[in-house]
Design goal:
Elements lengths: L2 H27 L15 H10 L1 H18 L6 H25 L8 H24 L7 H6 L2 H17 L9 H4 L1 H28 L7
Helix pairs in contact: 1-3, 1-5, 3-4, 3-5, 4-5, 4-9
């Protein structure tokens, strides 16, 4: 009974993310601002694109896009790998919304098209992704193995960010900028995000068990 509303909501979510991502790519290729930083960096187009894909925000939204499209096709989707992708999408987009709203928003002031892209990535997508999961699931899907494997992507992203930053002297977020903060402060900030991630994953696992199964048998 809930399949049609689920497909509709996830289709809207997928379109929001896809539109924001495509608009951002076009904007960057034209020399425009990156909605994640609010600035237009004078670097080659390939570098701008690599930087775009290096943002936790963008990777989280792309995971949300993959999960949403799969749930449009099958609202009861399941599978070992899919469970991890779905949980990482939920974790990543929740962290994106919370960290941007609490830490980064005062420093990012996009205008024009970049404002809409920023709204899609940092506000609409996080809210719609979490609400759609609460309403439609699918659940239960978060077992112990899924919980453990869900840490692989965020840990991998953190290692990649610090290594690439040391090589290219570019960090996607100011609270990770080792060249400005030093490793002690940057790693402390990473620790805060790790604790937030553990808390969120634990909360999602608890809700996955306690909330009504979706779709209903």
């Amino acid at each position: 009974m809930t399949q049609r509303p689920s497909r509709t909501v996830h289709a809207v979510l997928a379109l929001v993310v896809l539109a924001a991502f495509c608009a951002q790519v076009v904007l960057l290729l034209g020399g425009g601002a990156d909605a994640n930083s609010g600035q237009a960096d004078p670097v080659p187009g390939v570098t701008r694109f690599v930087r775009l894909l290096s943002y936790f925000t963008v990777q989280s939204n792309l995971l949300v896009l993959v999960a949403a499209v799969s749930l449009v096709i099958d609202p009861a989707r399941d599978g070992r790998f899919w469970r991890v992708v779905r949980l990482d999408a939920l974790l990543g987009i929740t962290v994106t919304g919370l960290v941007f709203g609490a830490v980064l928003a005062p420093y990012v002031h996009p205008t024009g098209v970049a404002w809409w892209i920023n709204a899609g990535f940092h506000y609409v997508s996080p809210v719609l992704a979490v609400v759609s999961w609460l309403l439609f699931g699918p659940r239960p899907r978060v077992d112990g193995r899924t919980f453990g494997w869900a840490f692989v992507w965020p840990v991998g992203w953190t290692v990649y960010t610090l290594v690439r930053g040391a090589v290219a002297d570019w960090y996607p977020y100011p609270f990770l900028d080792v060249s400005q903060l030093g490793y002690a402060v940057a790693l402390r900030n990473v620790g805060f995000v790790v604790l937030l991630s553990v808390a969120l994953l634990s909360l999602f696992r608890l809700l996955d068990r306690r909330l009504t199964p979706r779709p209903r048998p």
